[in-house]
Design goal:
With 253 residues, the chain is α/β, with parallel strands linked by helices. It has 9 helices and 9 strands. It has a single domain, classed as Spore Coat Polysaccharide Biosynthesis Protein SpsA, Chain A (Alpha-Beta Complex), CATH 3.90.550.
Length: 253
């Protein structure tokens, strides 16, 4: 048994084969580092309060965001000194370079490239945090506070809330005050950046690199927008193949 565990979850069966590729990349990375690994399907939801689960039945992303925090707490309380969460659509494409920081905890970096508006195609970047990758060690000062705050806000809520409410939105708000440690190499790719990767270059990819503090070695591939039709299966699969190609220089800058 290792003192570190990597945790992932997704409803079964998987809706796309490329998600299995992402899961495999994380599992192989965990095993290569001799970390324990555990995958959950809908069992994940047993870690949150029945009242909250019922309240957000129609918004499973909200329930999942809270359940992962409870899951991480559970394993920190049960003999693990370090716990790691990776979303099912999180791809570790440079496993030899993707390593944990020395901080007590670390959160992923979101550099989101999009058009300024539907009518104005000027590109803009939005710099945030994301919860597709999170790492917490024993005696960290953040996980319990973050979990309690998220749960409290959900209990208070009486209406529909944005999908990212206790994920990137809350994390970014807390970071703006507390300046949380960031795993800069754990990124997130917007559809425009994925399109440019498929073309092996472009202004969205250039802007992503310009706004990123360092090269990324892993990234969330934004399955939510894939399900909405903003990225095709062919684009995602080509993006993965290019990122995993050892000869690729996409993020060598």
């Amino acid at each position: 048994m290792s003192d570190t565990i990597v945790l992932q979850s997704h409803t079964q069966p998987l809706p796309a084969t490329w998600i299995q590729t992402c899961l495999d990349s994380v599992r192989k990375w965990a095993h290569s580092n001799q970390y324990d690994y555990k995958f959950y399907d809908d069992e994940l939801f047993k870690f949150i309060d029945d009242e909250l689960l019922k309240k957000f039945t129609r918004q499973p992303i909200i329930a999942t965001d809270l359940a992962r925090l409870k899951l991480l707490q559970h394993y920190l309380q049960n003999n693990y000194s370090t716990v790691i969460w990776c979303d099912a659509d999180f791809l570790i494409f440079s496993p030899n370079k993707f390593s944990l920081t020395s901080h007590k905890y670390a959160l992923g970096r979101e550099v989101w490239i999009q058009h300024k508006s539907r009518s104005e195609k000027t590109l803009i970047s939005k710099i945030k945090l994301h919860n597709a990758f999170m790492m917490f060690r024993q005696n960290n000062s953040f996980l319990d506070f973050y979990t309690e705050t998220a749960e409290h806000l959900l209990m208070l809520n009486t209406g529909t809330i944005p999908p990212q409410f206790i994920g990137p939105k809350l994390l970014t708000a807390l970071h703006n005050i507390a300046q949380c440690p960031i795993a800069e190499h754990a990124g997130m790719l917007s559809p425009l950046v994925i399109e440019d990767i498929c073309q092996q270059g472009g202004i969205a990819l250039d802007l992503f690199k310009q706004k990123s503090k360092q090269p990324i070695y892993a990234a969330n591939l934004c399955s939510s927008l894939y399900y909405q039709g903003e990225i095709s299966t062919e684009q995602i699969e080509m993006c993965i193949a290019l990122l995993q190609d050892s000869k690729s220089n996409i993020f060598k800058y």
